[in-house]
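Pseudokinase FAM20A
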Amino acid sequence: CFVCCRNQEHLTHHAAWNSSAHVTEAALNVSAPWMQFHLEISRDALYPRASRNVEQLIEWMGNINIIRADLPFDTKKLNEECDCDQIVKPSGTHLKLVVQFQDLGRAMFKPMRQSRDEETSEDVFYFVDFQRHNAEIAAFHLDRILDFRRVPPVAGRLVNMTKELLEMASDENLQDVFFLSPANNVCLFARCPYTCKTEYAVCGNPHMLEGSLSAFLPSHSQAFRYSVQNPWKRSYTFTGKEDWEVNPSYCDQVKQTEPYTNRKRLLNMMDLAIFDFLIGNMDRHHYDVFSKFGDDGFMLHMDNARGFGRHSLDEITILAPVYQCCLVKEDTWLRLRLLSRPEYRLSDVMRESLSRDLLETVLTEPHLLALDRRLQKVLQVVEECVQKHGEGSVIMKEGGQQAAATGAQQRAV
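Tokens:
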């Protein structure tokens, strides 16, 4: 802990000396984009298809003053109950902060951990992989393009680690994770009470660091949501296997289990699997739902930072829900087919959408082209199901009815 401790005294003093000069008086504004975003949440999606507020919210998060920075709740809990012998992932892979803006809105900040051109090593397990800020940004744009609208808006931003994070730190626990590197760059690391792992730190250049800002959802007291274990979650040990990985008929069990006896929830699971396959995310162990909407409500597609790690790998097992259940929602099927056409190619639509983010080159070209390749594989899996079971048994309307595409629908896509 020599490097961080020797430099912390200087950084803490610097923050205390300057903190009052940079705090802007906070005021609640009911017309603020974050509040309007909360008001637009419905049973079907986080925001309407024609919402104008989403773009305003993204621009707002990318530019509005930060007046407070804090550790997220799960990190605070880890600091209280940390047992390094029980933690598989190295300290530092979950590096994130909660930031508050001058109009009282909040967002989750995830810093840049991996360069755009760097692929995750094939020897790295999905549960110890880095979280990537650009994956959060790209996942939001893809979710919107697919018309799911289940990922909270995400904006890229270049942050001054000293003025916007350290000087705005809410307590000493957060201040303690900042240090100066040998190159005099301001750095930040994830802290366990028994370790001081600066080798997992992220550093500014010397102060500036890019990251993603994910808009907060309403508080649990206003809109309670609960976490549900993904029935197709992977084993989080080095050798274990889950039932779905060894039983091709696993979906039959899922269909007889609450809440998947509700066909809408089961079809939403297919959407989630397709979404995760396109971004290459193998780390979907849970998903969240709003309790107010019951089993008919949509599933939140949150925490996507482990996507877009390897553009050269198409992990087909992510699609296990689709090829084991042989089900897909009609609206999703039509949208995927549309995005496979040359004039609406998914990579082109993504490239255009991402160009509006404040950060340049959110995804490299190989990652964009991988989306087209993976989309073709999704279509192939569904078409194989159709050949085996018939279109009327595979393509379903959202309520669960058979939805064999009419000739007019087929011509439309």
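The two ends are 60 Å apart (CA to CA).
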